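Below is a filled-in request sheet from our internal design queue. Each sheet records the structural input a requester submitted and the sequence that came back. We keep these sheets so that new team members can see what a complete request looks like end to end.

REQUESTER: design group, bay 2
PRIORITY: normal
MODE: inverse folding
CHAIN LENGTH: 172
BACKBONE (tokenized):
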């Protein structure tokens, strides 16, 4: 990113609206199911060379699609298997600045205990000495994470994850 972000440690500010959402086509592509994770945490570091690393962790059981029966199924072993794998993590390993306020990040996504590389683009929405807001979006092939349940072929294509994350300077 050509926009400078203060070096140091940053903590996800869960008191403001940090949102991680997911959407996926179902019913043979006719319906888009949308949901948000209600419990998230994270931290990051901007190093003196301008590179960034960090981790965002989601409570898999906190996914809310506004349909209790569907949410229960998503928490089951058919999908997130929250009893065995309560957390979803995205660990940022490196970044590559792009033009303006964007960067391409290389991460490791862990779902159901399975870790896969996950590239994603990030846009810097706000940055000052005390606060940073990032927006990201990426697609995920759920079958790569052991979530192959697909009754009658109703679910098609990848799921899309989006995030708007607010970080504040960390004391530590």
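RETURNED SEQUENCE:
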């Amino acid at each position: 990113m050509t926009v400078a972000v203060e070096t140091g440690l940053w903590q996800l500010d869960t008191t403001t609206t940090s949102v991680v959402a997911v959407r996926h086509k179902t019913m043979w592509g006719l319906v888009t199911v949308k949901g948000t994770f209600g419990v998230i945490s994270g931290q990051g570091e901007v190093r003196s060379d301008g590179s960034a690393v960090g981790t965002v962790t989601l409570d898999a059981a906190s996914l809310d699609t506004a349909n209790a029966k569907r949410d229960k199924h998503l928490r089951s072993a058919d999908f997130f298997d929250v009893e065995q794998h309560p957390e979803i993590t995205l660990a940022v390993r490196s970044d590559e600045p792009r033009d303006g306020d964007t960067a391409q990040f290389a991460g490791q996504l862990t779902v159901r205990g399975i870790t896969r590389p996950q590239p994603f683009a990030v846009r810097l929405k706000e940055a000052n000495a005390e606060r940073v807001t990032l927006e990201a979006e990426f697609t995920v092939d759920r079958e790569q994470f052991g979530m192959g349940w697909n009754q009658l072929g109703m679910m098609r294509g990848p799921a899309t994850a989006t995030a708007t994350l607010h970080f504040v300077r960390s004391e530590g």
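SHEET NOTES:
- Residues 17 and 166 are 7 Å apart (CA to CA).
- The domain at 8-169 is CATH 2.40.128.110 (Lipocalin).
FILED BY: M.R.
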